[in-house]
Write a sequence for this structure.
């Protein structure tokens, strides 16, 4: 079985990634809907809206996310697929 590659190495890399992401994605509002779960896995469908800090353009992002946790309860694997759609501010749901 091929070992999965990670985009991040260590917690600080994750903190840095999220800090940069949320600096760009202003007025972030998120909704997650539980899709399925087992002992160590969770799947959700998500949708969120945000405004790009540099352009002011609003977006709606939607997709699916799957997590697998290790015996200590820490995330071991995260798999996510998403699409960003440009929207007008008047089209916001959240």
């Amino acid at each position: 079985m091929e070992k999965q590659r990670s985009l991040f190495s260590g917690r600080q890399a994750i903190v840095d990634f999220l800090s940069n992401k949320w600096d760009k994605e202003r007025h972030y509002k998120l909704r997650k809907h539980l899709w399925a779960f087992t002992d160590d896995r969770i799947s959700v469908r998500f949708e969120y809206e945000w405004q790009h800090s540099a352009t002011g353009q609003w977006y709606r992002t939607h997709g699916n996310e799957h997590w697998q946790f290790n015996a200590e309860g820490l995330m071991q694997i995260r798999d996510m697929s998403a699409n960003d759609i440009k929207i007008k501010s008047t089209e916001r749901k959240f």
